[in-house]
Amino acid sequence: xxxxxxxxxxxxxxxxxxxxxxxxxxAYLFCGPAGVGRRTLALRFVQALNCLQPPASGQxxxxxxxxxxxxxxxxxxxHIIQIAEDAQTIKxxxxxxxxxxxxxxxxxxxxxxxxFLGFEKATPGAQNALLKTLEEAPEKAIxxxxxxxxxxxxxxxxxxxxxxxxxxxxxxxxxxxLVTNQHLPDPEAxxxxxxxxxxxxxxxxxxxxxxxxxxxxxxLENLRVALNGGIIERFNLAERLSKxxxxxxxxxxxxxxxxxxLMLVTARANAPLTNLDYVEPLEAVATQIDFDTARRAASxxxxxxxxxxxxxxPRLLVEVLLLDWPKITAxxxxxxxxxx
Length: 340
Prior knowledge:
The chain is globular, with a radius of gyration of 22 Å. The longest helix has 22 residues, at about 245-265. The protein has 2 domains: about 10-165, Rossmann fold, CATH 3.40.50; about 210-340, Up-down Bundle (Four Helix Bundle (Hemerythrin (Met), subunit A)), CATH 1.20.120. The protein starts with 8 loop residues before the first helix and ends with a helix. By secondary structure, the chain is α/β, with parallel strands linked by helices. It has helices at about 10-20, 40-50, 65-70, 90-100, 125-135, 155-160, 170-180, 185-195, 200-205, 210-230, 230-240, 245-265, 280-285, 290-305, 315-325, 335-340; strands at about 25-30, 80, 110-115, 140-145, 160-165. Strand 3 (about 110-115), helix 5 (about 125-135) and strand 4 (about 140-145) form a beta-alpha-beta unit. Strands 2-3-4-1-5 form a 5-stranded parallel sheet, with helices on both faces. Helix 1 runs parallel beside helix 2 (about 40-50), helix 4 (about 90-100) runs parallel beside helix 5 and helix 10 crosses helix 12 (about 245-265).
């Protein structure tokens, strides 16, 4: 029997064996890009740890009260620590409050679990505060951390955790899984697998999220407008697109996938594109720029994504980005090409 997750069977087997052999570590670090399935794997692990009627050692029934509460992230002994809505970091006060809770015996479950989501966003003070708990974890407490990379955490934290490095699936394997398990048509499954870059969590989240799909098209269409437009059009775009910082951050990530695709097309690389439904516009743009131009635009976006979390004027940030982009002879979007 395997855990109901998409991808990462080796990690599920490892964790199940830790439970079966009573060798569960006091702390685990799940690393990988956003959308790869870090939280899903962590929650399945918690289910297997605390299931009331496990079908086998290291497995979870998925239907008992404990399993259902855990999956909904509403179990009293599961404490989830993440960035607050109005914040940009995990703060030391959140860690200290957790330490108080972990000192208590479990209320209902076998273990008290602390799940830190996106712990690379924790302040240095918060990371240092967690060290003592990692060094002297209560007997019935287990700490689970998710992060994009161990390199973005203090080495003393990483060294005290069992590190599981989760990687995207092969795109063709993810597409096959979406057809088999989610009953998607082949073209839709293939497109979602490419957009997600092999990340199963992101692909699953896009299936029923039409808003996210529409947002992607919105930002790619505005990228086309910027490339085709002059200085005035780009200033106007910067003003409109920079009003919501969170939306802008997500939009710049979408732009980054487009410029990375252009790097692949201009280099004639044999690698899968992210924006599979924009192949014709990408090829048209690639005839007017070279690899270095695409690389510079991608690098500038990566830097902007780091700067946006600091006290940088969002409008000025977008203006600088757009004004540095090359002027491209009009290239139609996929919808317009189909209409023709």
